[in-house]
């Protein structure tokens, strides 16, 4: 016999695993929903994170459900908005605004003007369950659209956070120029993210070799740093092999190692860097003239270790419990990184040798990428297990809202209000 079960599970998992030992189980699919303040229009999305695969971006597929007899000749319009805030609200004076809101997609959903398209699996489920008042929609991100990034605010920052945010907006209006009313408008925050691409074959390990000579003193200190791979996943240890050869007359007093996050805000051509992990060691020090030293050091850059640091870039910010450091910005093959817009993120491992008051410092940076593992990969499973171990209290964000959905195994979750969001329900 077939036994149906409804499964509620953590918001970071899209599906619940089947059990091989128990009778066949029907997997419940989670769907996010949000309803207009007047309760007449509800928008459903199968996910909130949409992935840029470089050669294509996941489409935003969902369904709008309208109450019987509500429209009375009016229409439902859908938009994808991006808000690019590159300066603090409290610094906006004399009409100068440090944010740009752009509508990157705008379409009429009800009645649809587009030719009938094949429905995605989640749209099929929802239209079957909701009946004739369910209208599917599909939006596409434009090419080279920036990824979601939020710069962590400081204690004294009271306005909306700096960064790039995306929203799906649906509203009821008489025509395209009609902007609708707040009571019949719904706005859902989404994220556009990038995953680590599948790389075939061995890749060259990132490395750097630098030397430092001294005035009025012969010989040099050589520093070689080699990382154990090119791409790391959020929560993973970064391993670096450090080799120091002292052919000078100076001493190396100590060694400092940092994981550095580099941000470029393209709108104002501003660049800054933040340390997101660090260590200092005196092991083997002082490294005297003629001596050598080799050591493997490890760092783990985490958002949870940088909660109070203003300006650290995060991968969007929908909920505190699933936040990561911002992923490295990737561009499609044939495109130049300087063509990327929004907030461009890169990382490097920085090693500093202290050569004394007169000797100064010997510094080198080795670039690496920090990304999410691709879905379906072994690394993805490992990352999820690691993330579960480090998960924070998520009770304050509400719980699942389970409608009467035993018939076709859909678990609905209301879009949770999150801190630092736009005023969605004014």
What does this 3D model show about the protein?
InterPro entries: Arrestin, Arrestin-like_C, Arrestin-like_N, Arrestin_C-like, Arrestin_CS, Arrestin_N, Ig_E-set. Strands 5, 7, 8, 10, 11, 12 and 20 form a 7-stranded mixed beta sheet that branches. 31% of the residues are buried. The chain is built from 2 helices and 23 strands. With 426 residues, the chain is mainly beta. The radius of gyration is 26 Å and the shape is elongated.
Task: Give the gist of this structure.
By secondary structure, the chain is mostly beta strands. The chain contains two helices and 23 strands. Residues about 1-25, about 390-405 and about 415-425 have low confidence and may be disordered.
The total of helices stands at 2
User: Gap between N and C termini, in Å?
Assistant: 50 Å
Question: How big a fraction of the residues is strand?
Answer: 35-45%
Order of helices and strands: EEEEEEEEHEEEEEEEEEEEEEEHE
The helix fraction, in percent, is under 10%
- Which structural class fits the helix and strand makeup? mainly beta
Rg on CA atoms, Å: 26 Å
Average pLDDT over all residues: 80
Number of strands: 23
Shape: elongated
List segments where confidence is low: pLDDT < 50 over at least 5 consecutive residues.
1-23, 390-407, 417-426
What's the story with the biggest beta sheet?
7 strands, mixed
What would the keywords be for this entry?
mainly beta, Phosrestin-1, Arrestin-like_C, 23 strands, 41% strand, seven-stranded mixed beta sheet, five-stranded mixed beta sheet, single chain, 426 residues
